Amino acid sequence: MQNTNPLLQTIKISISALLILLFLVPAKAQNNRIKEQTQGNDSSYIEWTGMYPPAEKIKKKTGIFRKISGVIIGSDELPSLVKPISVVALSPDSFFVSDQGSGVIFEVINNTIAIPRNLRKKFVDMSSLVGMTFTPGHEILFTDSRLGKIFKISSDRKKLEVLNDALILKQPTGIAYSIVNKEIWVVETAEHRIAILDEKGKLKKTIGKRGKGEGEFNFPTFISIDKAGNAYVTDAMNFRVEIFDKNGEFVSMFGEAGDASGYFARPKGIACDSYGHIYIVDALFHNVQIFDQNGNFLYQFGHQGREKEEFWMPGGIFIDAKDNIYVADSYNSRIQIFRLVSH
């Protein structure tokens, strides 16, 4: 017999309402229009704009072995992303992807993917691609941590060469170009430091050593440099971000290990938007967290999943001059694109 006790019915309704709210609030928080106050009374938000491959082109039953074999030995199918780790972009219609799963660099133009001839697997064997950056002349510099080298792709994409073959690096990962000093900054993860090079790849100096103090690192990974020459480094196993000025002098740091918003679990890619806000990809949180220059948490977007605006252990991030945001959604084998909208 059904219980018709008014008090019990009221309690059940209240509990149901509470559960609905608990499920709705997180969903709303992950909406693609996550708002915050940027400067003055400007209201800005993050908007999802697309991804590669497009949703309609994703094949549900394409396994990782099939993807890799298609890249290595060739097939009738177009090459596809396997485990993208980094991305650099000229626009949402033209970007490059460092794919660690297949060991090649992909070029995506107008939703069409290709492997530049000199970067194909049969010419170059790179099993541990990590960081990428543009030079002012639109050359591409990228690292392979196992080979310990920096490679350079010419602006016409026809020539591939090692940047200073005499340079010895220990597990180079993140890489960034400083337009202020015309320098190349590369993270040496195994040495817990940053190597600063001239444009020809000659070592000028290093900064940092292993430790927990200011200007010290514990397995740093990714790096980004803004237009003023300030460098932002993901100090991964210290669970923080360190900031340096254009001369490599320590400025500040923020972050600590934790399981809530504003903390880090597995920080990876890092980038800045036109407002100077700092974006950090966290692979274990499956999201992107945004902080101001003082390290104050502002907001976040993304959570674990396979749908649009969801991530699965993302890696690198890139923000172009128009505040388009590109995220290497590594284990979903795709690049997701967002934009910072101000009005």
Please report the distance between the alpha carbons of the first and last residues. 58 Å
CATH level 1 class label of the largest domain: Mainly Beta
Compute the number of helices. 2
Given the C-alpha coordinates, what overall shape results?
globular
- Assembly state here? single chain
CATH topology tier name of the largest domain: Neuraminidase
Number of strands: 25
CATH architecture of the largest domain: 6 Propeller
Radius of gyration: 22 Å
Give the strand content.
35-45%
Say which CATH homologous superfamily of the largest domain is assigned: TolB, C-terminal domain
Q: What is the typical, i.e. mean, pLDDT?
A: 85
Provide the succession of SSEs.
HEEHEEEEEEEEEEEEEEEEEEEEEEE
How many structural domains can be distinguished in the coordinates? 2
Roughly how much helix do the residues carry, as a percent range?
under 10%
Strand order of the largest sheet: 1-2-25-24-23
